[in-house]
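Handout for the seminar on molecular recognition.
Each group receives one record of this type.
Step one: identify the two inputs.
Step two: read the structure output and locate the region that could contact glutamic acid.
Step three: write two sentences on what you found, then compare them with the reference statements printed after the record.
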Amino acid sequence: MTVRKPEDFRRIVVKIGSALLVDGASGKLKAEWLAGLADDVAALAKGGRDLLVVSSGAIALGRRILGLPRGPLRLEEGQASAAVGQIALAHAWTEALGARGLTAGQILLTLTDTEERRRYLNARATITTLLKLKAVPVINENDTVATAEIRYGDNDRLAARVASMMGADLLILLSDVDGLYAAPPATNPGAAFIPVVERVTAEVEAMAGSAGSELSSGGMLTKVEAGRIATTAGATMVIASGKRANPIAAISHGERCTWFLAEGKPGTARKKWISGHLETPGAVKIDAGAVKALRAGKSLLPAGVTGVEGSFQRGDAVVIRGPDGAEIGRGLVAYDLADAERIAGRNSGQIEAILGYAGRAEMIHRDDMVLRGE
Ligand code: GLU
């Protein structure tokens, strides 16, 4: 593999484990370390890249502020800790990024925000808007409301889902280990280091073991699983040690880390998923002008829609048909059937007056669409 560096990528998700941000003994934020990391993030962002941060640490910070004893927390205690700690965490990021001319925007996700298509569109639209406005989304799980059945539980997989949702081409997992070993190094001190994972196979999964540290929920197993999610979505992933002052710069300087190679390009897997639906619940018919606009890379606006059929919900994959009824492509529709019918043929500026709420300007956004032959 040619040596790669974070600078080679365009949209980068950086995941930071609790053990890096919060001191295990005192339970306090490691402000100096955060400053070094913020320098790295700012350097990449100033080079014109999109940066997203997935930061753990809310529960670890909050439990100290609340004076809870060490050891495992009950669910409610963890949620209460997150409620308190998330404020401190967001504040720390606002300060650290702000001092470097960057604006932080807090996003708290629950599992359904990335797993359910209707909600997925909302979460993605907000994060996309932050990136367009040159803000840095600082993301965590909404631990205050997440219970066992409805949570990611670890920020490794959350970060991988975010990378795939946002079409990122690089996911950096910073943790207290410097990469993947052929067996867990804690119990196998001589285990060989694995610098490159070409594909996440069962054999690779078996190398991971399962143990996590006291502060964070994710062990190597969740990191390898994150690798599977990210790489199949077309993102490269790197696991690197965060136990140094400028951990992202260290990757660029060639410090030891494990690279998981992307399968295909970001967006390819998503496109396959959109176009691969066997049964679509409905269709939108569009006029010749809209067909032309779509082929020129534009989104589908309500103005170009001449009719709707079937019974679809917001976020469903529908067929897009041209004036002669032939399938032009498929896409995730931003309105349910009833609302789509009401705004068909109208200008986007009239949507709010017609529906009583300000919906999306596009009926189907270009990012959510696959045309035949693409
Ligand atoms: N969301 C948790 C927190 O902020 C961390 C989850 C993890 O350790 O991966 O405390």
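Reference statements: The chain has two domains: 6-266, 278-371. Residues 278-371 form a domain with the Archaeosine Trna-guanine Transglycosylase; Chain: A, domain 4 fold (CATH 2.30.130.10).
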